[in-house]
Amino acid sequence: GGAAGEYALALSGSTAAPPTNISLGQGMSVSLSWNTTDDMNLEVRDPVGGAVNFRTPAVDSGGRLTNNVNATCVNTTNDNPTETISWPRGNVPGGSYEIIVYFNQACPANPTAGSAATADAAGLPASNSGTVNFALTVTVDGNTLEPIRGSLNANQQYVASFIVLAADKVSLQSG
After folding, report:
1. Cα–Cα distance, 71 to 73 (Å, whole number)
2. pLDDT tens digit sequence for 54-105
3. What SS3 class is residue 169?
4. Is 141 left (phi over 0), alpha (psi -120 to 50) or beta?
5. C-beta atoms surrounding 138 within 10 Å
């Protein structure tokens, strides 16, 4: 409101230490695979505030998006569509990386693509129910973690994370 006067503010706690850099001889990647012609998107937020996605395909920490598959339902494929965000070998920020999978929109089936009733290369069963099955695969310094499998309906999101403390100390948290 309109009160005037002198005020004192005291803060307690500790300041967060900035993330340390982790040296990776083989880099790091996060891949999203699914088995429909639908428009899915992958985003990875790094520990230093960068967010790699189709709108920002590269960030200062070195993260890069390889491609935006089935974007806006143009030139679609259901032949193992995959989006990958990767960091090259060298230093990456240590800390927590947030992974977000977006099911943007259902796209019409591509009549020239393979049958939607089969399984894709990631072993995901195909679905005609409006639900998209997906797999997230995280690889750090050549070590591939157990994939996270899930499903989404249109306009839903899935969130997971992984923490990199060292090249050989990585933990994955499913959504």
Report:
1. 5
2. 999 999 999 999 999 999 999 999 999 999 999 999 999 999 999 999 999 9
3. strand
4. left
5. 23
SS3 11: coil
pLDDT of residue 109: 78
Q: How far is CA 25 from CA 19, 90, 116, in A?
A: 19, 6, 39
**What pLDDT score was predicted for residue 67?**
92
Q: Tell me the two tokens of residue 173.
A: 């948290």
State how far the Cα of 87 lies from the Cα of 30, in Å rounded to an integer: 9
Please tell me the pTM assigned to this model.
0.81
How far apart (Å, rounded) are the C-alpha atoms in residues 157 and 154?
A: 9
Of 110, 99, 112, residue with least CA distance to 47: 99
Please answer whether residues 39 and 111 qualify as being in contact, where contact means their C-beta atoms are separated by less than 8 angstroms.
no
Residue 30's nearest CA partner among 19, 50, 46, 18 is: 46
Q: How far is CA 50 from CA 8, 92, 136, in A?
A: 35, 12, 20
φ/ψ of 22, rounded to 5, equals: -115, 130
> pLDDT at position 106, please?
92
27 is written with which tokens? 């880099």
Task: Annotate 133-163 with three-state secondary structure.
Answer: EEEEEEEECCEECCCEEEEEECCCEEEEEEE
Q: Which residues of the chain fall below pLDDT 70?
A: 1, 14-19, 110-129
